[in-house]
Specification:
Elements lengths: L4 H7 L1 H12 L5 H17 L9 H4 L3 H16 L14 H6 L8 H11 L3 H11 L2 H4 L2 H12 L7 H4 L15 H8 L2 E6 L7 H12 L3 E6 L10 E6 L2 H8 L4 E6 L2 E7 L10
Antiparallel strand pairs: 1-3, 1-5, 2-3, 4-5
Helix pairs in contact: 2-3, 3-5, 3-8
Length: 276
């Protein structure tokens, strides 16, 4: 089951919070704040262990600090290569701090600097973020709808939030595939991973096979741009009974696979327009 717009907004809540925090400090135009947070989102994927967005409210507390972060992000995006060890500009200290690196001469920080200095890498990464989940993370209208929904006590999702995420610029499954999909629905699990800690197709299949035998027909993962990690997938079992055994009567289960969390729930297909 493809995630909904609501699923994506909830998954990237910390990224949106970092963006709104920068705007609240009034240090720069919205586009500059957007690009800076998109850079942090890319660094979270590209630099193993770095998770900068959640640290923004604690480390960027003043308009001056926000302006500094935006200036460092702008320099990385416009002057790629300037932060090489021998480069003319000082290293982006606030970016390094947000990524958990205390000093520019630390070996891990040097690896991060090389990543930031790689020719066009950051610029391409930010473009991929803005062309993908960033289209939702930085959509003020969708977040206004989300706030009204949550402040109203929840309930049925508004149409804009319930829409499948992949309708936003990604290919939609053809009608010819519908009969096969309907046959698979009763034996499929929709799986999601912790942000920044995805699992491979092989790890997922091995986990279920070790516990329930030769039970997996196939594992499908989110199709992502180069360098972007998948956040969800689907497991198709050979028998519906295996799916039921995994869930054990619960709507959602949390599993531990190779030290990383995997959440699983029954795959529920969305009705086609003709069925609505």
């Amino acid at each position: 089951m493809e995630p909904t717009v609501h699923d994506v907004l909830a998954f990237h809540r910390v990224d949106r919070a970092a963006y709104e925090h920068l705007l609240s400090l009034g240090a720069a135009p919205r586009r500059a704040a957007r690009d800076a947070v998109a850079l942090l989102m890319w660094l979270h994927r590209a630099a193993a262990g770095a998770d900068p967005a959640p640290r923004v409210p604690a480390l960027v507390r003043t308009p001056a600090a926000a302006a500094r972060l935006l200036a460092e992000a702008r320099a990385v995006l416009l002057l790629h290569g300037s932060y090489d060890a021998a480069g003319p500009l000082p290293p982006p200290q606030l970016l390094l701090l947000l990524c958990g690196e205390e000093a520019a001469d630390d070996p891990r920080a040097r690896r991060l600097l090389l990543l930031l200095a790689a020719d066009e890498a950051a610029r391409r990464g930010v473009a991929e973020v803005l062309g993908g989940v960033g289209a939702l993370v930085f959509d003020d209208r969708l977040h206004a709808i989300l706030r009204r929904h949550e402040e109203g006590g929840g309930g049925a999702l508004p149409e804009e939030l319930a829409a499948p995420y992949r309708l936003h610029g990604a290919p939609v499954r053809s009608a010819a595939a519908a009969p096969l999909a309907e046959e698979e629905d009763g034996r499929s699990l929709f799986i999601t991973f912790s942000k920044g800690y995805p699992l491979t197709r092989e790890e997922v299949e091995e986990f279920f096979t070790e516990r329930w035998g030769n039970c997996v027909a196939k594992v499908m993962m989110e199709k992502t741009p180069p360098g972007e990690l998948p956040t969800y997938g689907r497991v198709l079992f050979r028998r519906a009974a295996t799916m039921a055994a995994v869930l054990g009567g619960r709507p959602l289960v949390k599993l531990m696979v190779n030290g990383r969390h995997l959440w699983a729930r029954k795959y529920v297909p969305r009705p086609s327009p003709a069925q609505r």
